[in-house]
Design goal:
Blueprint lengths: L2 H12 L1 E2 L6 E4 L8 H16 L16 H11 L15 E11 L2 E12 L2 E15 L2 E5 L2 H4 L4 E5 L2 E5 L5 H18 L6 E5 L3 H8 L1 E4 L8 E7 L2 E7 L10 H12 L7 H12 L6 H14 L5 H6 L14 H17 L1 H8 L9 H11 L3 H14 L1
Parallel strand pairs: 2-3, 8-9, 9-12
Antiparallel strand pairs: 1-2, 3-4, 4-5, 5-6, 5-10, 7-8, 11-12
Helix pairs in contact: 5-7, 7-8, 8-11, 11-12
Length: 388
């Protein structure tokens, strides 16, 4: 073991105070309030807050209602933070209170680290920064998002409040929200008030919310975190910049659909098929994808679409990005179902459940909605290709 690692472990464990009823370890180097009553209240509140992270976010009694929206997103990042699938241990990463900074008489900045040990070396899972505000006989906790964006500007676009550092591309922003409104209209999504933060990248998203580091996001440049509480949505967007450039209709469709239908029941090939149909993919329009699919069909007149569907055949192998047969077929089927039965029937197919071996749940739902069975699937797909 390297000398520096040994010193780190010695300080971390030999100096930590721990009891069975206390979820967080507290190294002696951490500066805590000298007032013992205040110190005990802070520690007890941290433990209480963390103990409730596994239940629904709106039931955490250490979060005030006015702070719930942004703190809910942070709580989602903390959930199950101690567990490790790799090491098959639900309590592999231990929680440490690494810092407690007094900002004023009632507010502390609290920092937490989750660290596991493997082969004698520390393995960091995450670091969080959380604000703790004393009220009555305990502390309440919240994400520092609002504090971190105090100097930002904001403006209202429809039901969405845009928050940004200095400027945004208003024309591009309006085009984006027109796209969102179009998708939401098709999905019959409610016009929910939304707080939308324009960030440069995922790193900024995480920092603003209070996630100083999380190994899950190692190497990720762009992503968006979101949540919904009390009929208000929060979107902290690090997928595209405040200039609203490189917006992908395909990804936007996924995001709006997932606000309406839970990802726990969505069938991915159908999800991707509807994204092809309504948003294209990889910069291609649906018509361009369809033309490529028809060209593949013409070059493979004996293709068995049931086999190709189940293997999710890439029918554009020479291209930089794949185009999948099951996605294209579902785009054709979604178009047919919407024309014949309306969009709610498309939602029904979308909601048939996660992909199973041999797609049994999918084919059961498809036969129920269209009469197309596994036995007739191949011929029906050929008919759809010829009709389009």
């Amino acid at each position: 073991m390297k000398k520096t690692t040994a010193i780190f472990l010695t300080l971390l464990f030999a100096s930590a105070t721990f009891a069975q009823t206390q979820p967080v370890l507290i190294p002696q180097s951490v500066y805590l309030p000298k007032d013992s009553a205040l110190k005990n209240t802070l520690i007890a509140s941290v433990n209480g807050f963390l103990a409730q992270t596994q239940q629904p976010n709106n039931q955490n009694t250490y979060v005030r209602p006015e702070d719930l929206l942004e703190t809910s997103v942070l709580l989602d990042e903390i959930k199950d933070i101690s567990g490790s699938r790799k090491f098959n241990d639900t309590n592999f990463y231990k929680g440490y209170l690494t810092n407690a900074v007094k900002l004023n008489d009632s507010t502390f900045l609290v920092q937490l680290a989750y660290i596991g040990i493997t082969d004698g070396a520390p393995l960091v899972r995450a670091n969080f920064t959380i604000l703790a505000k004393k009220k009555g006989d305990k502390f309440y906790f919240n994400s520092p998002l609002k504090e971190n964006t105090r100097g930002w500007k904001s403006e209202l676009v429809g039901a969405t409040t845009l928050h940004y550092k200095t400027s945004i591309n208003n024309a591009n922003a309006k085009d984006y929200f027109k796209m969102v409104a179009k998708y939401d209209e098709k999905l019959k999504a409610p016009n929910t008030p939304t707080e939308f933060y324009c960030c440069d990248n995922l790193h900024e998203v995480l920092q603003l919310l209070g996630v100083d580091y999380k190994s899950d996001y190692n190497g990720s440049v762009h992503n968006t975190l979101s949540g919904k509480e009390n009929n208000t949505c929060l979107i902290v967007n690090g997928t595209f910049t405040p200039d609203f450039t490189d917006i992908d209709p395909h990804d936007t469709w996924h995001a709006r659909l997932h606000n309406v239908v839970s990802t726990s029941i969505i069938n991915r090939p159908v999800d991707e098929g509807t994204a092809y149909l309504y948003g294209g993919s990889w910069g291609l329009t649906w018509q361009q994808i369809l033309d490529k699919f028809k060209a593949y069909a013409a070059a493979n007149p004996k293709a068995d679409w049931l086999v190709l569907y189940n293997e999710s055949k890439n029918f554009d192998e020479k291209a930089k990005f794949p185009l999948n047969a099951d996605f294209a077929i579902n785009a054709l089927l979604a178009k047919k179902i919407e024309q014949e039965k309306g969009f709610p029937a498309v939602i029904e197919l979308l909601s048939c459940g996660k992909k199973q071996k041999n797609n049994e749940n999918y084919f059961a739902a498809l036969e129920h909605l269209t009469g197309i069975s596994k036995a007739t699937f191949n011929s029906n797909v050929w008919d759809l290709i010829k009709a389009n």
